[in-house]
Amino acid sequence: MVAPKAICKAAGVEGIENVVRGYGAREIATGAAILTSHNPEPWIWTRVAGDLADIATIATGLRQDNNSKGRSALTLAALAAVTIVDLACANGLNSEKASRKTAARDYSGRSGFPQGLQAARGAARDFKVPDDMRTPELLRPWT
After folding, report:
1. What's the confidence (pLDDT) of residue 101?
2. Angle in degrees, CA 79, 80, 84, rounded to 5
3. According to the model, what pLDDT value does residue 99 have?
4. Which of 3, 67, 80, 87 has the fewest CB atoms lying closer than 10 Å?
């Protein structure tokens, strides 16, 4: 968004500075959504779609009559690599959903008392609070 003309020159395309600025805004919005979302998977897929739009845009640089087709080809290769990484991430998040490793565990049969509830009842009945404990007099047990 800050330097679209320099990015266009580096990518080997001309005259699409406003498009590049819009793509920058898209990337910032998608990144913020990924970082703040409880479920980043749809936003990662949005990145993949954005990568495809980027590739289509840079491919126009190969058809332009200029001397920077090499830079356009290099940019396409870099975008293809980023798209592959985004696809791998999106597929990983998708497969994680149905995995048994991420399924919620059922702890309804556990009570939290390893020796059982009966053993826990009255276990502290004979406990005497030491006098050196900083407990207000009103909170100490009656004796």
Report:
1. 59
2. 115
3. 56
4. 67
